[in-house]
Design brief:
Layout lengths: L12 H45 L1 E11 L3 E9 L4 E6 L4 E5 L6 H11 L4 E10 L2 E12 L2 E10 L5 E6 L7
Antiparallel strand pairs: 1-2, 2-3, 3-4, 5-6, 6-7, 7-8
């Protein structure tokens, strides 16, 4: 091992750079591990819902799985059966319900209907759900009222697209 000369610094700029880069890499790895851990319960629930939907409805593949929480927790899995038909599978903790996708009101038509009724609305999300004992479409949208952005949750019939209930959320205020 080489002996340091008097006045020679041990921590050179190159060594500092290596230490800083290794520290940043460690912090990034820990942050990624934390987010993976935080999402693990949700991912496990999703896998279980897809597994149950696949087994109960005879799905060849699942296209999407959406968790919906209102009166009770339900996962809505959209998929394709072995015979090629598209279905929605409602996975409850104690039961499974299957609906042919052809029986559902089209989400894009619902989008058009909501925008017709609320021309100034900006639709954030449309997803299937289950509330008050029936299958629904949930439409989350925002509108400007008196210069304030307000958010709404509109529930519409899953089969016919008819309005069921709209919830107006309180506006955010600053100050």
């Amino acid at each position: 091992m080489r002996r340091r000369e008097a006045g020679e610094r041990f921590m050179t700029p190159g060594r500092w750079a290596v230490i800083v880069l290794l520290s940043l890499g460690l912090v990034l790895a820990l942050v990624l591990l934390y987010f993976q851990w935080a999402r693990s319960d949700y991912a496990r629930e999703e896998r279980e819902a897809v597994r149950r939907a696949t087994a109960e409805a005879g799905l060849r593949r699942a296209e999407s799985a959406v968790k919906f929480v209102w009166d009770e927790v339900v996962w809505v899995v959209r998929g394709e059966r072995v015979d090629g038909s598209d279905v929605y599978v409602w996975v409850f903790p104690d039961r499974v319900e299957i609906t042919n996708a052809g029986e559902a009101y089209d989400a894009e038509t619902l989008r058009t209907d909501v925008l017709k009724a609320n021309p100034d609305a900006s639709i954030n999300r449309i997803r299937p759900g289950y509330a008050d004992g029936r299958r629904i479409w949930e439409v989350w949208y925002s509108r400007h009222e008196n210069g304030v952005e307000r958010h709404f949750y509109g529930f519409y019939g899953f089969e016919d697209g008819r309005p069921i209930e709209t919830y107006r959320l309180p506006a955010k205020t600053s100050g």
